[in-house]
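Holo prediction — beta-D-glucopyranose.
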Amino acid sequence: MNTKEYGYFDDAKREYVITNPRTPFPWINYLGNEDFFGLISNTGGGYNFYKDAKFRRITRYRYNSVPMDSVGRYFYIVDGAAVWNPGWKPCKTELDSYECRHGLNYTRITGAKNKVRASVLYFVPLGVKAEIQRLTLTNLSDDIKRLKLFSYAEWCLWNAATDGENFQRNLSTGEVEVERVNELTNERVNGWTAIYHKTEYKERRNHYAYYAVNCPVDGYDTDRESFVGLYNDLNEPQAVLAGHSTDSLAHGWSPIASHYIEVELAPGESRDFIFVLGYEENEEANKFAKDLSTFNVQLSTSLGERDHHIINKVRAHEVIERFATVEAVEAAFAELNALWDELLSKYRLESSDERLNRMVNIWNQYQCMITFCMSRSASFFESGVGRGMGFRDSNQDLVGFVHQIPSRARQRIIDIASTQFPDGGCYHQYQPLTKRGNNDIGGGFNDDPMWLIFGTTAYIRETGDFSILDEMVPWDNEPGTEVSLMEHLRISFDHVVKNVGPHGLPLIGRADWNDCLNLNCFSMDPNESFQTTGNKTEGSKAESLMIAGLFVYCGRQFVDLVESGKLSVERSSQVDSRKLREEIEKMCKAVEQYGWDGEWYLRAYDYYGNKVGSHENEEGKIFIESQGWCGMARIGAEKGMPEKALDSAAKLLDSEHGMVLNYPAYTTYHIELGEQSTYPAGYKENGGIFCHNNPWVIIAQTEAGRGNDAWALYKKIAPAWIADQDLHKVEPYVYCQMVAGKEAARPGEGKNSWLTGTAAWNWLTVSQHILGIRPTYEGLMVNPCIPSDLKEYTVTRKWRDAEYVITVKNPNGKQRPDQPTVLPYTPGRHEVEIVL
Ligand code: BGC
Ligand code: NOJ
């Protein structure tokens, strides 16, 4: 086995340290956790956006580009004949040393060449709409170094979708301003230089972006061709090779921002440059500058003399001035780190297993924050234009995040519920900027409604905030249609009840969790998308066992809520929990009678009422989703169904790298199954290892008391145990959506890292089901299901206004306690010992 390592974990610093820039794929990180975001690879590639990766893209990225991982924010250093970048790319000049440290919402890239060290710290300060780049240049030699420094960022014309296609317009609209503020104080020239991107600002946009540095410059460029040259690439920009910029002003074509600074460093001297890449909005009435005679400002605009549309830059100036000093940057950086201290203190594990601690205490929780912020919008696999916030995705994501910042999860629930239709159906996605449902995809995914119950009940168990049920929430964002959130939950439940098929099982609609199981699609036209093409639902018998399990599991969560005894009379009278129970019971019966294949749960019935996921099928005999969900819900427990299903999954689905989604994978296109059967065998939803649904099986295993099995599968999926980084290919510190399955060409190869419900589900699995610390309406439940050789661990859990220090001891090698313990909620600190 090839076990080349590209880096290591530095747990004390909560960083992953990449020591070789030639990673098998760009290994990225996310900057920002509020409204302003950046994606940054280990070589500085990536881009920024404000709130919405589609509508407010600030800098460009070229997906599908050669080489991959371009464009980015680059610094070029010219030192005599040597031209290099601290992150190796784009020049790819061999560095004397290279290191990239991806930390929690920050990245530090350090390169050294010919006794000059350049270290760049990238982060987004809390509450600020800008990325700070602190570049520290150090002369490690005994001679004076005369260096030339160039920065580079390429603007995106705001809408990332049209930026990539409407060239007849785009290549004529680009506009910029350059502002040089020089002050002569104490014989030194101080000040700063900012390049503004103002395309469409004079008419319909009230927002602008800027890239500033906290010093005067020796030149700049804002026109890409002038900087790069007509025949050059970013690895050899003409201006850099020539050793000076051209002071170009972009008139259309491709506006960029590049500063040029000459730097002289004495032996041993270090100098910091603070670059600020930001975004601001102005009110319509106030968007243009009134007084242009500001002292010592030299302003150039691409519109020239007749420009009456100079940006009112007050807001940008505030940020630029605030971060003019290293002290200010350090203070903001400390604030960011303190936030993460606080977020990670909510659930802290001490155990003898370093890798488990690493997943639980750092990386899994961090990834949950990122998926909460991004849903499935922007990664190196998600273009940021295709998908906004997913209805089901965001509900799952918030369950992994709710303990960190409950108030943000609360707002998210309201936003999501506001995109629901009056019949309980839902927009499958919405745009974060507008919060409106996305018409391109529409609705009709029949699992969606149940996820709202899943998300909301998790929020209330965490916070005890029942008042969220009183929130008045509209249907489809239509003012005047508001009803209580409780009503949304009731209708969500009913949506499943009212949409059952001939076997009394839930009709699947467009698809369920498995977006690619399109049982009503029947598409023969390669130009249409499986996700959106007209469905043939009329007369369809297509039913889903996954939704059946989901309904029973989340339906019970709804019952628990209604029967918690903590609802107001008004809320509890809205729902008759006996009725809910009856419906759940009915569904269980239907599954037992029509959803059981003898050794495992069926997956579905197709349009015609034929079985999917049965031993009678030639391919796709067994699927993971129904084993997971019906197993978690323990449907048919008296008949031993969940245990049998788990045994079958272990026999047929499991592999070295985890459980595949279905087996055997489809090798031909089944028009009645849709997109799933279009994927080559072993990939994605066709026999790939979906890291997202392995946890469902793991939880089902813990429900069955099988701690050893649960642990074995948990370790196969968790990044901290990745053995072969070359094979795995994507980042070794976060989960990816899919690992190629046992029937694939390269089993074990990971794809689609970062933005996946895998993060939340594994968090739920390890924190609540394996380590077993679970918030309930009654109190904090301790109900571990662990490997028998785990002897002891301690979890410190901050829950509401209490802190529980729970030590679990397992002297007799058990897998779970005889009885769960429920610690009543009392504010204050409690130390508890539980012996299995
Ligand atoms: C992918 C799914 C995804 C869907 C919607 C499919 O091609 O395989 O994982 O959810 O597209 O974008
Ligand atoms: C990715 C989607 O974001 C998610 O909603 C879906 O459940 C999975 N793919 C499986 O198809």
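READOUT: The chain has a mean pLDDT of 96.
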